[in-house]
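[job 4471] stage=fold_predict status=RUNNING
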Amino acid sequence: MPGSSGQWRRLIRLILPGFAPSCDRMRDSAMSPNRSVTVRFRAADFRRKLLAWYDTNARDLPWRKSRDPYRVWVSEIMLQQTRVAAVIEHYHEFLRRFPTVQKLASAREASVLAAWSGLGYYRRARMLHAAAKVISREHAGEYPATSDGWRELPGIGRYTAAAIASIAFNEPIAVVDGNVERVMQRVTGTTLAGEKFWSLAEALLNRTRPGDFNQAMMELGATVCTPRSPGCLTCPLVKLCTTRGEMETEAKPARQSKREIHYALVRQNGSVFLVQRPRNSSLMAGMWELPEISRADENGELVMTVRHAITTTDYTVHVWALPTSTRVVGEWYSAQRLPRTAMTGLARKILRKAGWLTQPPA
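[job 4471] inference complete, writing structure tokens
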């Protein structure tokens, strides 16, 4: 980041033609040609207003109670493509089972996947486990202090590395995720892509409080500057914003497809029969689940129907109690073993509803 105001102005002009901090204004390029809008805009105002709002309105989330690198890292991995509400419960349980990076590194993969069950995208758990082994065994438990160092670990990309380094180590580096992209495009009224997002985020970054600033940008996008029906009236940046929410920033989500599937619930002597997904499967590789059957079995009894969604597919799941193991290769699991078993989220949902999964994993 340039140190002088002259360098700042040159950088901004390269990023966004029309964004002119030297005269404290930015011309709206997203509005109708018949509406030439000029907005008073100072980067210092942007930072000040955003952080003042965040200091007062930030959600009370468990991972914000500490700057501990391990907790920040776990939360950032869990939050990828997952709702905050779903993460909170898993976050507490995961840290209860693996309170330190050393505990995580020494755990069996099956135990890590069992604790992750329900969050989906299980490759994240495997990469988290692999990175913990590197930190514990090759770096004597010492965490990288920079984003470059974090990016050398398995499963850590540009965004995650910057988020951890800025929040846990106060490294002055910006983050860009979908929320940040939306805020920047709406405020500037300019369609951005690729490196221009990162360059503008770096230009706007508060370098004294980079971790708080990055979280504030993401918080604003998640709670106020939302994809649909943004809350412009409550936005701290409304007077600096070019579009006031009128700019379309994201493609409409893909329409959900619907599918009906059937599973067998086979029970015997206090155990339930499970099968393992192929280890080379593109989804939930190696996870345990109930046997899938092609259709209702004439010897079966319908015991429940549940709804389940995976990415862009909504499933109607019929579960049939069957007397045999459906002649497939699998394994019997006692009720005591189930909480520690790396099961798919759907299997866990079914067994919990059936009363087979009531105790948390130890």
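[job 4471] summary: The chain has three domains: 5-41+173-240, 62-169, 257-353.
[job 4471] exit 0
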